[in-house]
Design brief:
six-stranded antiparallel barrel; 5 helices; six-stranded antiparallel beta barrel; 14 strands; alpha+beta; Thrombin, subunit H; 32% strand
Length: 280
């Protein structure tokens, strides 16, 4: 109590000033309509600005949640693309019934660890077997290929990215098929082999997936031609490409699941066994 009285005694002039100021403003706004409306208008603007800033802060703090929602929505929309469906033609005489059967589904994931400076780089995702992720599934981001799942645990998975010395996948360049590889060094550049020299290609041409691999649907973006070396005596172009995926900025990805993989692998294995029996 003594401290409070001492504080009042010390600052009584300031307190008296603000008290009289408040009383004067109350009398002014209470008896004059113009001043009262102006005060209300400006105070509303001030409160609105405070609420606006609070809302911006709240949205900023929710960016992670919003990104998760956007990634999930992108995966849902991608799963509905016509390229992810097979058309089963059940024509009988003059009656035709075309049924679309979905082949690919996409699951969202986030990169929680990555390397880009090694010869054997890896990515770690926050999705695993409990979320439906399995070994050999493809991984894409923004419509461009990222890599292939090589191992999984209950809640995490490891991906071999394109920028891994052992990575290979078939690709298409101007109607011709080649093999995508990475020889180390620059994580932005890769190489496409086995494109015949009679194929007309030029800098800027687009490379996409073929759909022959279970990992990726056909037409996924791979990269763009940056250099063509035809000085070798081989009958194939040596093509350098710039990858469409920026592995230094990779964050959200989509994991591709081929719903027909087991069925196709089963029939292929049966055919190989039948061929083997014939050879013997």
């Amino acid at each position: 109590m003594r401290n409070i009285l001492a504080l009042i005694q010390r600052f009584y002039v300031t307190l008296l000033f603000f008290g009289l100021l408040g009383l004067g403003l109350a009398m002014l706004f209470g008896s004059n309509n113009y001043q009262r409306s102006a005060f209300v208008r400006h105070s509303t603007d001030l409160v609105g600005e405070i609420y606006s800033r609070r809302d911006h802060l709240s949205q900023y703090l929710r960016l992670g949640e919003i990104n998760d929602q956007l990634a999930l929505e992108n995966a849902r929309l991608r799963s509905r693309l016509p390229s992810n469906f097979l058309i089963t033609d059940t024509s009988t005489y003059d009656v035709a019934d075309s049924l679309h059967r979905q082949r690919y589904i996409f699951r969202t994931g986030r990169v929680i660890n990555a390397t880009v400076t090694r010869d054997m780089n890896y990515l770690t995702l926050d999705r695993g077997e409990m979320q439906g992720v399995k070994k050999d599934m493809g991984v894409i981001a923004g419509g461009a290929i990222v890599g292939i799942v090589t191992s999984t645990s209950n809640n995490f998975s490891v991906v071999m990215p394109v920028i891994h010395s052992s990575f290979q996948t078939p690709v298409r360049l101007n109607g011709f098929y080649g093999q995508l590889t990475w020889r180390g060094g620059d994580p932005e550049l890769a190489r496409v082999d086995d494109i015949p020299k009679h194929a007309r290609i030029q800098v800027g041409d687009t490379i996409t997936t073929t759909g022959y691999s279970f990992a990726f649907p056909a037409g996924e973006l791979v990269g763009f031609v940056t250099d063509i070396d035809d000085e070798s005596k081989e009958s194939f172009h040596v093509v350098t490409i710039r990858l469409a995926t920026d592995f230094r900025k990779l964050n959200y990805v989509e994991i591709v699941s081929d719903l027909f993989r087991e069925e196709i692998e089963s029939i292929q294995k049966a055919q190989e066994q039948a061929d083997g029996a014939i050879d013997h």
